[in-house]
């Protein structure tokens, strides 16, 4: 059985966004235990020219939502990018996961050869759907999820690889 575009994307987005939400729970617990204002974590960045934690979460959610919508050939809902708390970021992640479940998998699956147009900073990119998914969307999404994880790990939040992976469907013997 062939592996479809929706199988290659939607479960990965959902698992990673839910894992990111769980990591944010650990960040909130860490901030409370250490008596740190959670906004300090949200404004932390790994390097002066990188996005802070809040923006990494927003961009990860946008990548999943907007990229999947492009593949499905629909217009995604817009977010204001005005989250200032961990709870607000978690709500954004939950909205994104809920939105992904509304997308037409058949439309995503039929996008492999269709040209996808997407913003790339001040320019516009063009790729067929399969290349867009494999070479741009998935790597970009996972970059921002990884950056959010790395920021929290750098801040001392006790998270590990298992937290990053989330609830992946692994069978053990």
Summarize the structure.
With 173 residues, the protein is mainly alpha-helical. It contains 7 helices and 2 strands.
Strand order of the largest sheet: 1-2
Rg, please? 17 Å
By CATH reckoning, the class would read Mainly Alpha
Proper CATH architecture: Up-down Bundle
Backbone structural class: mainly alpha
Q: State the end-to-end distance.
A: 25 Å
Low-confidence stretches: none
Count the DSSP helices. Answer: 7
Following the backbone from N to C, one meets helices and strands in this order, namely HHHHHEEHH
Beta-strand percent range: 5-15%
- For this structure, the CATH topology is Four Helix Bundle (Hemerythrin (Met), subunit A)
Which overall shape is indicated by the principal axes computed on the Cα atoms? globular
Largest sheet: 2 strands, antiparallel
Tell me the helix content: 55-70%
Q: How many beta-strand segments?
A: 2
- Averaged pLDDT: 96
Question: What this model shows, in words?
Answer:
- This protein has 173 residues and is mainly α.
- It is 61% helix and 7% strand.
- The protein is built from 7 helices and 2 strands; from the N terminus they run αααααββαα.
- A two-stranded antiparallel ribbon has the order 1-2.
- The two termini are 25 Å apart.
- The model has no long low-confidence stretch (mean pLDDT 96).
């Amino acid at each position: 059985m062939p592996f479809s575009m929706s199988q290659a994307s939607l479960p990965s987005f959902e698992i990673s966004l839910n894992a990111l939400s769980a990591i944010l729970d650990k960040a909130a617990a860490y901030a409370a235990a250490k008596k740190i204002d959670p906004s300090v974590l949200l404004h932390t960045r790994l390097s002066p020219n990188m996005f802070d934690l809040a923006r990494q979460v927003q961009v990860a959610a946008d990548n999943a939502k907007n990229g999947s919508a492009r593949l499905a050939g629909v217009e995604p809902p817009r977010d204001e990018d005005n989250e200032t708390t961990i709870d607000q970021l978690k709500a954004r992640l939950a909205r994104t996961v809920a939105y992904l479940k509304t997308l037409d998998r058949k439309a995503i699956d039929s996008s492999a050869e269709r040209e996808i147009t997407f913003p790339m900073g001040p320019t516009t990119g063009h790729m067929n759907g399969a290349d867009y998914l494999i070479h741009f969307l998935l790597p970009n999404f996972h970059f921002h999820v990884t950056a959010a994880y790395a920021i929290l790990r750098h801040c001392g939040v006790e998270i590990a690889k298992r937290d990053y992976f989330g609830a992946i469907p692994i069978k053990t013997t």
